[in-house]
Amino acid sequence: MLWFRLCIVLVALRRVGAWSVQPEIVSSRNEFLRRFVDAPATALLLATPPPANAAPPFAIMSEELGYFPVNDERTGETVMVPAKAKRESTDQAVALAKHLQSTGAVMYGAFWCPHCQRQKELFGREAWKYISYTECSPKGYRSLYATCLEKGVDGYPEWRFGNGKSQGGEMELAEIAKKSGFKKPFDGKLETGVPPLGGGSCK
Known about the structure:
Blueprint: H1 2-15, H2 29-38, H3 42-46, H4 57-65, E1 67-71, E2 78-82, H5 91-102, E3 106-109, H6 114-123, H7 125-128, E4 132-135, H8 145-151, E5 158-160, E6 166-168, H9 173-180
Parallel strand pairs: 3-4
Antiparallel strand pairs: 1-2, 3-5, 5-6
């Protein structure tokens, strides 16, 4: 493997004129290697490269799934945090999120649940900042697993609205607006760009 690597570097050096050698002068492999090591720029080319700042395979897989491993500052354990929403929020989505916050609505979910992630994307980056979210998975970041058990949450996402109503499963924003008593007009046709997953909840 090293011999092959040296030959590749030699070809590159000869192309740029950094080193040349007459074949008849090199009588053995050892002689070739000696001349090669003494050649200009060889040390630079063979130098050990700095370690790449690449994520381990597990982190890459987690990114594709929509969550990432982090250290919990309270316990020091490795826990999972959901990825941030990527979609830009509409003005009406932000207004709805502020309404949900002011009326005490809570969304219960789990970091690994794709329906929870889609619910977040429906709101978008700006609006999601106003949503009160409770993590129910024991391995989730800042998990309130005991609270979820106490509240009887058995599927994700699950909404508990300030007006006393509740709804299990992923919901379109127009439906959330209606269920939560949002008084302003809400046009569901403006909330596009988030393909449906099929089904509505994770168990």
